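User: You have something folded?
Assistant:
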Amino acid sequence: MNRKQYKKYCVSGEIYQEDFTKKRGYCLVKEGIIKELGVGEPPIEPVVTGTIIPMFVNSHTHLGDSIIDFEVSRIEKDELSLKELVGPGGIKHKRLEGASDREILKNIIDSLVKGERSGTGFFSDFREGGFRGSNTLKLASQKTNIPVKIMGRPKEVNIKNIESLLEVADGIGVSSVCDYTKREVDIFKKASVDLGIELAVHAGENKINQKNCLKESGKSEIKESIELDPNYIVHATNPLEGDLQSIYDKDIPVVICPRSNRITGAGMPPLIQMLELGIEVGIGTDNAMLCNPSVLEECRFIYKTFKNKLGKDGAVEIVKSATIGSGDIIGFDVRIKEGHRANMIVIEEKNKGILKMLAGEEKISTICRGQDVILNV
């Protein structure tokens, strides 16, 4: 890997600019800002030529889990349930409670850097551990200069704790409405309205929570979560009848994490139905103890799993969801556009760029981040 810094540079090729419209041309960057998107002969010699897309946006992670060295096969062999692994009082939370801030910080930094090296430049994280947990993540973001939307979670649910949390967090990331009393859920909703903050929630990840909610309240976990008026829902892997229509009707985006769902046995998200309904879909990698933070790997898995059901432009649509789509959901505009900071990936120039990249036949050759150009990724 060769990292160089330029006051002025140019990249050329097939550029997916603005709202993912492909044009053959060049992108001129001055002092880290995209100054010109043009066609024809580049004004200066390009540092690299290829297929150019925005950097990936990881719209759902649990980076604190990076500290946990976990044997995935234990879940796949049904030795552990999802609740035993990541639920309240489970393996993950016990390990995090016993870890030092320094340990957690180091491992989060390692995950952020690993993600960036695979083209993932932006993250949104559901961070447990109250003020302490969110502050550790904020430090990791500052030390690496990699942007992270911090969706924090108070240890005890009350307005005072939420207000304190928001000194370092950007919003609230609710694990599941099933993990809280009705009073606590109401506090989350009141806080999001009164304080004008973002709120997102896990919902429909597993069938058990869906059925338990239905039995106790007459509504599925997804429909109970919709009543929180969240900015987005994570997973929706196991929707019950009417759930997806309700999500669409309320114009709520969904962030899917298929690799994690496969490992935990939750199933596969109904991606095709979501897209057919018109639900806005983002892509995340979920727990760092289960999946590495590479959105490229997530996209490859999605393409392999759903390619026979996607149309001829399926590969492009997946990457669009993983870049500007995910960015729009969590609040990072990563479009390749004049006036924007350069945050771009260049796929080596061979055949059909995006399609070949998702098929594993082409790789990312270069990453552009502001004035930095990372060659030979």
Notes: The radius of gyration is 21 Å. The first helix runs from residue 73 to 76. The first strand starts at residue 2 and ends at 5.
